[in-house]
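FAQ: What does a ligand-bound record look like?

Like this one, built around adenosine-5'-diphosphate:
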Amino acid sequence: MIILKIGGSILTNKDSKISEVNPTSLKRIASEIKNSMENSPKQLIIVHGAGSFGHPPAKKHKIGEKFNKNEYPQKRLGFCEIQNEVKKLNMHICEAFIKENLPVIAIPASSFITATNKRITQANLDLFKKYLQKGFIPVIYGDVVLDDELEFCVISGDQLIQNLAMNLKPEKVILGTDVDGVYNKNPKTHEDALFFDKFSSLKDLDTLEGTTNVDVTGGMVGKIKELLYLADLGIESKIINAEVKDNIYKALEDKDVKGTIISRG
Ligand code: ADP
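The answer part, i.e. the structure of the complex:
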């Protein structure tokens, strides 16, 4: 089994205030996945980020922060708005995949996961396993979920990856984003950023700030933290650049692709 994450940064214009899909990237990625599935059928789970669909409304409604009791109805409506926005992105993605004859089935986190203080504490994956056995490709994405402490919170695609991989023990975990992998600082703002083939500790980062200010789920640092939890369990993952044509195909086919392996070893 392979768990593949497609970053919100490639699928949408993440810095944008408007919810916009990038149709060209989406189509290309869908066809790379199709080519790989045709070449070597495999069990596959797709996780995608929320990008510009999820982050601005999550920030607007301050989901995941403490609030007063009288604000509850308003927060609950904000929760609904975010859930609906990310569902729209998921619909675009599933539509593009179905056009490529990929048997995708959306399983929203808000429908079966709950959290405590922003960490997943309940997630029954039996349905995932059943769909996988029947040859479906389950698709899950960054979403809002009920939280026992905070009432509501956002769960990033990266935390979902961590939870799924921990419980389903895939052979491979691949994360496609819009940079080649992990650098010692943000390569988009620092020309002198140094690339890591392998990354094993947050101490190697010069700056520990998030990425874009619209990302309420932690950006690259949040991503690496989740992958380091996995590395602690002995599960390696690899961050690659999904904007580079054929990288997703090659990674799915076990071919050599530039990227950063996150492992403790
Ligand atoms: P995605 O939405 O694809 O999951 P994120 O936006 O969460 O990805 O994270 C990717 C972004 O992280 C890149 O666009 C890059 O600008 C930024 N970034 C910040 N710090 C780093 C770093 N040290 N190494 C690599 N990328 C970084």
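Follow-up question: can I read anything off the structure? Yes, for example: The two ends are 22 Å apart (CA to CA).
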